[in-house]
Amino acid sequence: AQKSWIERAFNKRECVHIIVSTKDPHRCCCGRLIGQHVGLPPGISSSQNDKAERLAKNDSLSEKWSISKHTQLSPTDAFGTIEFQGGGHSNKAMYVRVSYDTKPDLLLHLMTKEWQLDLPKLLISVHGGLQNFELQPKLKQVFGKGLIKAAMTTGAWIFTGGVNTGVIRHVGDALKDHASKSRGKICTIGIAPWGIVENQEDLVGKDVVRPYQTMSNPLSKLTVLNSLHSHFILADNGTTGKYGAEVKLRRQLEKHISLQKINTREWSPPLSITPKANDSL
User: Fold this and answer.
1) 44/84 same-domain check
2) Greatest C-alpha distance within the chain
3) What is the pTM of this model?
4) Do 195 and 221 fall into the same domain?
5) How far apart are CA 6 and CA 3, in angstroms?
């Protein structure tokens, strides 16, 4: 079968060389369990972890794990549509898993041609801690209303970290309130690390429609995606349970978008919002 443009343009990244973590002998430095590696020698299954660990330990006494040396690229195997389950509303979002060093012009092509989004006149980039903090109700209302108004009046794209924690949850709540009044969809794009996504195995598949559970596991280091987003770009650097893969990709994409239509008057530079936990009115 012929590969789609997305498969030809985008890659995933997987750790193929086990280097045992000094903090956890059952895990590689990439964060993945040793028995879950794609690059295990033939005949080693997850039930033979001890043997795999011994092999890996001998291999890794002096070597430091790195993305460039110990991960391997192959065509992406996770893109399509997420159908969020639970919460009394059926939200859908487009998604794609891409290598963390993907060129921003390819991502913009994906967004405007494959996802058929209109270039925004304003890019609103919401930053903030991933830890959960509470906004005072009045401040939360002001933040939410201001964000939605800015997005609606300018045809903006909103960029967030995409997961259901910290300030991103407050953005999601504002979008939920907006959606309940049926005032048109706002383009909200979550850029998150593939390696921290809870239930990521549910998203593996090419051009698929996949149900996705938004119940978070309190014991897990992974995080669920926020169901009020319209699109997700999941940045993959071969690690599991670690943030960071998304940072450079997001920064470069925001810069690339801000350079579009640079000679026209209708463009605005990215507007960055960074609420702090102790903000008060």
Assistant:
1) no
2) 64
3) 0.85
4) yes
5) 8
Using CA atoms, how far apart are residues 51 and 45, in angstroms rounded to an integer?
Answer: 9
- Position 178 confidence tier, pLDDT thresholds 50, 70, 90: confident
How far apart are alpha carbons 279 and 100 in whole angstroms? Answer: 32
pLDDT in tens, 184-229: 678 999 999 999 999 999 999 999 999 999 888 888 889 999 998 9
Give the C-alpha distances (Å, rounded to integers) separating 14 from 56, 150, 184: 16, 39, 38
Residues spanned by the domain of 149: 76-273
**3-class DSSP state for residue 124?**
strand
If asked whether residues 60 and 105 sit together in one domain, one would say no
Number of folded domains that form the chain: 2
Q: In terms of domains, do 58 and 181 share one?
A: no
Q: Which of 122, 92, 74 is nearest to 209 (CA)?
A: 92
Q: Assess contact for 53 and 24: CB atoms under 8 A.
A: no
Please check whether residues 56 and 134 belong to one and the same domain: no
Token pair recorded at residue 118: 């209109």
DSSP per position, 75-117: E--EEEEEEEESTT---EEEEEEEETT--HHHHHHIIIIIS-P
Tens of pLDDT, residue by residue over 23-52, are 999 999 999 999 888 756 544 444 445 555
Shared domain for 245 and 118, answered yes or no, is yes
Decide: residue 2, CB within 10 A, 0-12 exposed, 13-18 middle, 19+ buried: exposed
Determine the Cα–Cα distance for residues 154 and 148; give it in Å rounded to an integer. 10
Whether residues 238 and 167 share a domain: the answer is yes
Q: What gap in Å lies between CA 121 and CA 156, rounded to an integer?
A: 6
Q: Which single residue is written with the structure tokens 């002998």?
A: 25
Q: Are 48 and 150 within one domain?
A: no
